[in-house]
Amino acid sequence: MMLTSDLLRVKKSRGAIVPRYLDVDDEVARERAQALVAIFESHQGKARALVDERVEEAIGHGTDFLIWRGLAKLLYDRSEFEVRAQVAPEVVREALFLEAARAGNPHREDARRRILERVGESLGVSPEACEVALYADLEERQVLSAFKTIDAEGLLHRYNLALAQAVLYRALTLKVHLQGQNSGRLRHLFQMLKFHRLMHRTERTGKGYVIEVDGPASVLKGGRRYGLAMAKFLPALLHLKGWTLEAVVDWDNKERTFALGPQDGLQSARRVRGQWLAEEEQWFEERFSEKAPEGWRLERRGQVVDLGDNEVLVTDYVLTGPGGREVLLEIVGTWRASYLRRRLERLAALKSERPVILVVSERLRGDREKLEAGAVGVVFYKGVILVDKVVEAACQALGEGAEVRPG
């Protein structure tokens, strides 16, 4: 749910992009927003053509039509339209066209009626049902089957968030400053970075952290999809306090800045719920007890590791061996070879009793350069994280040996 480029309302000021947010407390804006919501609420079960007509009437032709088109777009995104017909339209069309070809002159009204009757009889439906099904899959004839309702205030907040996300969609780089964060919310933020496969580097400051996120310009295969991931990441920030965001965006083929913070009043309806697990991580956890040697334990527990020069990484798991010694695991999604080398160089310089292993997706490499084979402290996977490879790497990191069941 994001505004398209033709619906953006921004101004350029001294090399910066400034979104023109709506005043959520404005009574006129709330009334018009509620009028749009009411159209979708009252037209469930009606054809899309009728919904479109009522929306166009509500939008009108004033100078502020971009606002109302943007709000309408967000409401369409909350809607589901479906084909409603007793028989699949393509089946009816094929049967009718074949019967019409046999009839020879189907343009006469009585001939048309007989064709509908014969086809309906062969398909077990009425002639009227055949006629309804004939073009029921056209967009304008699809029916509004479900609408996730929202109040006027919520819609205006959603518009402002969508506007900021549309700007971030064009981000080249992103920098987030954090201060005084709750540890649970901070873990959620790093989980969302991993969920959206965003390459990031975290530095510790005197009062918090600075997170730098690379944009699509540095991820050759990511393109705009990576910009979309950066935009989708934004709601996770809104649950925090003491944060600011600075981005460099590609706007009209020029680099411009974009700044955001709590003072902008953005809100997200998305709730912070527990810990998110990627499918491959869930499978890894489920299989660990079955495949790992006796005495090895895996715990989902984030740890902040200092890499020197105030740089840190946040791991995902703690792996404990039979002797009680621990190895930390970080799951790495999107990456470049230079990014991974930097991580490994920093880790190699650490004098830590708890070594770190990087579990790296081969499918999400961000450049064409491959890391040297046999890199110490790295386990590659292609969709499935192999338990034996992880434990083998952990034993190597601890200077121990272990028998591991394949898998």
Automatic annotation (TrEMBL):
It comes from the Bacteria. It holds the Pfam family DUF790. InterPro entries: Bax1. This is DUF790 domain-containing protein.
